[in-house]
Amino acid sequence: MNFLGENLLPGQIGHFFILLAFVASLISTISFFKASSNNPSPDNRTWLLYARGAYLTQIVSLAIVFGIVYYICANHLFEYMYAYKHASLELEPKYLLACIWEGQEGSFLLWTICHAIFGGTILAARKTSMVNGYEPALMTVLSLAQAFL
Hints:
The protein has helices at residues 9-35, 42-74, 81-86, 93-96, 104-124, 135-148. By secondary structure, it is mostly helical. Helix 2 packs antiparallel against helix 5 (104-124). The chain is elongated.
């Protein structure tokens, strides 16, 4: 049932990107695990490239979800329970960002974004001697944690 003035599109877009991020985290977990075998082969390289692509898809999806939640809170779309509970018309715009992680769902989103940044840092530093060779194993664990979050 739709009501006049209801904004359902942000929620539908956010739902799609949450599912996309979840599927991408599962794919990246499996792919990084497959790439972490000890023998170097062309198959490992293919799995690693596939895993990196899935992880980057997850990072982009999470950024879009964060933007949508901020949009919902900043525009006071109170048809969404999260905005109804955590955003207020009395809040100044600078505090609307903080209302995103005020609730449990927002805290999980914040932790997921932090893990995505950590993983992106590992992917960016893969040529350094500290991470070289450990990337598939590190990213397997990090991607699995992302899937649970």
